[in-house]
Amino acid sequence: MFGQDSPSESGGNAPTQEETLTQQLTLQEVVAATVSAINLNEHRKWGIKEVGHLLPEFKGDEAEAWLQRVDLIHQTYRPQDDILVLVLISKLKGPALEWYHSRPEHVAMNLKELKSAIESMFVIKEDKITLMRRFEARKWKKGEEFNSYYTEKVNLANKLQLSDEDTIIYVIEGLDNAQLQVQCRMKEFKSLAHLLSLMNEVTSSEKNRTSESSVKKSVNVSGTTNHSHRSAAPATVRCYNCNGSGHVASSCRKPKRERGSCFTCGSMSHKQVACPQSRANTSRSTTSMSPDTTTSALAIEPMNLTTAYSIPIYLSDEYNFKLCLNAIIDSGSVISLLKQKFVAHLPLVPPENTNFFGINNSMLDIL
């Protein structure tokens, strides 16, 4: 009994040394396979379409910034080199694409060779002094969008590798308004984004004020123009029978005048210029239409009228309220105008064969 090992002592259920070695090798293989799978997935999870969204088109300008973006994409997302080469070729446009197709050996270039060829062809080396002069000379032009000025100014600052604090100072110095420069310096901007946001608000408000003033100006100009059109008198025709305007002799409603007689009274002894009735009408109209202060004073000054030119008019209403007014009769005119309601009770018979009209050829009731 003592010469035999019991199952518990001999460890009949424990793995042998050979089995343990086999298990360790198997675990190492699993780890290696897992790492290989992870690396493989990292390379394959980015395709041409996904990487292509990260890179803009390239036409030959701003080559240095474009190549820097290519390097950042390569370092950050680690796509395969052959995929990145295809993406670069797909983004070439215009002169850059013509250059690529100009030599067949460009097709065989790897990523490093293609980047080097693009750099030697399109990157223009500009010395720092020249670049600084161009940066300082860039000003905000009158009528230019602020975003356009800001973008170009910041891009030049990035090429010079200036800090945000220095870039803000130079952007403010490039403004074309001294008062606006002072206000911006008082703001003490902490970031370029803050400066851009405030300037967009300022320029937007200025545009609104400018558009409102231009609209008001156009309305005023339009109103003035319309007024001038309204005030412009149309061409008129004159009658050779009565010397009136607005009609011709064939349609004149006044009695036919003898050739050579006065237009006003029909006398053959004088012309209209020397007619007593014309002079009387002219003097009265001149006195009434003259804008000087003396005439205005006479208009409100009581006058002692001659009896021959003034007659009393008695008015009364339905309540038997009576009022007597003095009416002036214009003896120099062939027509005296009265309102019909004042003489409606008088038995007057209108004359026949009358040819008189009111203002604008309106019909008159002849009493």
UniProtKB/TrEMBL annotation:
Disordered, as annotated region: 204-229
Protein name: CCHC-type domain-containing protein
GO MF assignments: nucleic acid binding; zinc ion binding
Compositional bias of kind Low complexity: 211-222
Gene3D superfamilies: Zinc finger, CCHC-type
CCHC-type domain sequence ranges: 238-254
Species annotation: Photinus pyralis (Common eastern firefly)
PROSITE patterns per the UniProt record, alphabetical: ZF_CCHC
Keywords from the named record: Metal-binding, Zinc, Zinc-finger
Annotated Pfam families: zf-CCHC
Entry-linked InterPro entries: Znf_CCHC (IPR001878), Znf_CCHC_sf (IPR036875)
